[in-house]
Automatic annotation (TrEMBL):
It is found in: Nucleus. Keywords: Growth regulation, Nucleus, Transcription, Transcription regulation. The keyword Nucleus applies. InterPro entries: bHLH_dom, HLH_DNA-bd_sf, PRE. One of its GO terms (cellular component) is nucleus. This is BHLH domain-containing protein. It comes from Eruca vesicaria subsp. sativa (Garden rocket). Residues 4-59 form the BHLH domain. It holds the Pfam family bHLH_ILI. The keyword Transcription regulation applies.
Length: 92
């Protein structure tokens, strides 16, 4: 019975070709490097996925850098000030 359940759950998780095309198309819209290309330029799904991973890594680095800058700002202001509370809220 557990074998049957695992087969059912894995088959329900499979994505159809149409769903995959739709997802890749949606990802293209979020990627600045690919979005700026002409619509006629063909970009493979693997390239879109690779660019998505690169873009997510870049966003993570930006978040880390901004968090570091906010932490430095927090160190430079009076901890009971309004500015400090705003910075702490941004870090949460």
């Amino acid at each position: 019975m557990s074998n049957r359940r695992s087969r059912q759950s894995s088959s329900s998780l499979r994505i159809s070709d149409d769903q995959m095309i739709d997802l890749v198309s949606k990802l293209r819209q979020f990627l600045p490097e690919i979005r700026e290309r002409r619509r006629s330029d063909k970009v493979s799904a693997s390239k879109v996925l690779q660019e998505t991973c690169n873009y997510i890594r870049k966003l993570h680095r930006e978040v880390d850098n901004l968090s570091d800058r906010l932490a430095q700002l927090l160190d430079s202001v009076d901890e009971d000030s309004h500015e400090a509370s705003v910075i702490r809220s941004l870090l949460m």
